Amino acid sequence: MTVAVAILNWNGKHWLEKFLANVIENSPEATVYVIDNASTDDSVSFLHTQFPETPIIQLDKNYGFAEGYNQGLAQIQADYYVLLNSDVQVGKNWISPIVERMEADEKLAVCMPKLKSFENPELFEYAGAAGGFIDKFGYPFCHGRLFSTIEKDEGQYNQECDIFWASGAALFVKSSVYQQLGGLDKDFFAHMEEIDFCWRVKNAGYKIKYIPQSEVFHVGGGSLPKENPFKTYLNFRNNLYMLHKNLPDDCYKKIIFKRRLLDAVSWLNFVVHFDFKNAKEILHAHKDYRSAIPDLEKKRKQISAKIIHKEMYPKSIVWAYFVQRKKRILF
User: Fold this and answer.
1) Nearest to residue 92, comparing CAs of 152, 158, 29, 13?
2) Parent domain of 310
3) Using CA of residue 281, residue 283, residue 289, residue 291, what is the dihedral sign?
4) Are 71 and 8 in contact (CB under 8 A)?
5) In three state form, how does the secondary structure of the chain look?
6) What gap in Å lies between CA 26 and CA 35, rounded to an integer?
7) Is residue 322 part of a domain?
8) Number of domains the chain is built from
9) Residues 6 or more apart from 138 whose CB is under 8 A from it?
10) Which of 67, 195, 311, 316 would be a feasible disulfide site paired with 63, CB 3.0-4.6 Å?
11) Which neighbouring-strand residues pair with 210?
C-alpha cells in the first residue's frame, strides 16, 4: 500500500517555505510530491535548493487546480492520492487513521480529515470544516460551517460520518477511483471541482467519509482571495456546471431554473450594494454556462445512476439560514 501526498503549487513559494517541512515531517508513510503549475516566482529553484529530495513535477503551463492535478497525478504511481493545498499545516499521524479506514472498506473511495483554521485553531475552517454537503439547489455547506457562521470545535463533530463532499484542501482518494472517473473536470479550472468529483463518486456507488481522528489546519484563500471577482465567476459558473452534469433526469431542468432565479437575487444584492464587479461576474458566469450546455449534455450521458443521495439536504439552505435563522444543519 503506497500513499502520495500531492501539493499543487502556483507562485506559492511563501506557502512552501511555511508549510512544506511540516508536511514532510508528519508524513513518514507517504511520498510528498510538489506539482508545479508553471510558477513564475522562484518556487522551483527554492525546492531544488531547500528540499532536494522532494519529487517535483513541472507542468508546462498553469492548468488551474483541476487539470493541474490531473496532469500531475497521471505521473505518480500510488494506491492513494492525497490532494493537499500548499497553505495547510498537518497534524501528527494525520494519514494513517484515514488510509487504514479506506483499506478496510473497498467501497470507501474518498475521505477528508477535520479541517480547522490555521489562524484560529479553535475554529473550523471555511473550506471544509467537518465534512461537506449540498442542498437541493446545489449550495454547499459543512458541518461546522454554514455560510459565514463558523463553529468552534468543541468535540461536536468527533464521530466519523458519511458526507457528500470532501474538501479539496485535504482530500484522500483511491487512485483507482480517481482514474476510473477521469479525475477532476478540467473545465471547472478551480472551485467546486472537488464537489463535482465527489458527486460523481457518489453516483458511481462509492462512499465518502469524514474522519475526525485526523486533523489539518488551513489558512484558506491562498490562491484567490474571497473578494476576488474571478472567484465569484468561478463559483457561480461551476455550480451550474455541477448541477447540469449530476442531477437526476427527472428534476435537473426544474432545479437549475430555480437556481438561476436565486442567482438573479444574488446579482441584485450586489447591484444594490454598488458591487458592480461581482454583479458583472454573475452575468458572465451565466453566459458561459449557456454556451457550455452542449458539452455538459455529453458529460451527463457519461454519468450513470444519477440519484438524490441521502447526504443531500432536501430543502433550501438559503431559506434555513437567512429566513429561519438556523446556524447548524444536522442530518
Assistant:
1) 29
2) 229-314
3) negative
4) no
5) CCEEEEEEECCCHHHHHHHHHHHHHCCCCCEEEEEECCCCCCHHHHHHHHCCCCCEEECCCCCHHHHHHHHHHCCCCCCEEEEECCCEEECCCCCHHHHHHHHCCCCEEEEEEEEEECCCCCEECCCCCCCEEEECCCCEEECCEECCEECECCCCCCCCEECCECCCCEEEEEHHHHHHCCCCCHHHCCCCHHHHHHHHHHHCCCEEEEEEEEEEEECCCCCCCCCCHHHHHHHHHHHHHHHHHHCCCCCHHHHHHHHHHHHHHHHHHHHHCCCHHHHHHHHHHHHHHHHHHHHHHHHHHHCCCCCCCCCEECCCHHHHHHHCCCCCCCC
6) 19
7) no
8) 1
9) 239, 242, 243, 255, 259
10) 67
11) 112, 161
Could you report the average pLDDT of every consecutive run of 10 residues in the chain (331 residues)?
97 98 98 97 97 98 96 98 98 97 98 98 97 97 96 98 98 98 96 97 97 97 67 97 96 97 97 97 98 97 90 96 93 73
One-letter amino acid of 75: Q
Under 8 Å between Cβ of 32 and 54: yes
- The residue with cell 461546522 is 144
Compute and round to an integer the Cα radius of gyration of the chain.
19
Residue 288, by phi and psi: left (phi above 0), alpha (psi -120 to 50) or beta?
alpha
Within a domain: residue 72? no
CA angle centred on 67, ends 63 and 70, rounded to 5°? 130
Would you say residue 288 lies in a domain? yes
Residue at 25 is within a domain: no
Report the pLDDT value the prediction gives residue 331, as an integer from 0 to 100: 73
